[in-house]
Amino acid sequence: MITKNIIDIIHALDAGEVVGLPTETVYGLAANAFNEAAVNKIYKLKNRPFSNPLILHTHSIEEIKKYIHPNSRKLLEIGEDLWPGPLTIIFRKKDIIPGSITAGSKYVAFRIPNHPLILEVLRKVSYPIAAPSANPYQRISPTTSKQVYEYFGENIPYILEGGNCECGIESTIIGMENDEIIIYRQGSISLEQLKRKYQNVTLKKSAESKIKTSGMSKKHYAPNTKMILVDSIEEYVQNNKHQKIGILRFGKMNAKSIAKNYYKKLYELDKAGFDIIISEKFRNTGMGRALNDKLKRAITKNEKYN
Ligand code: TXA
Ligand code: MG
Question: Ligand 2 centroid vs 236 CA: distance in angstroms?
Answer without folding.
Answer: 31
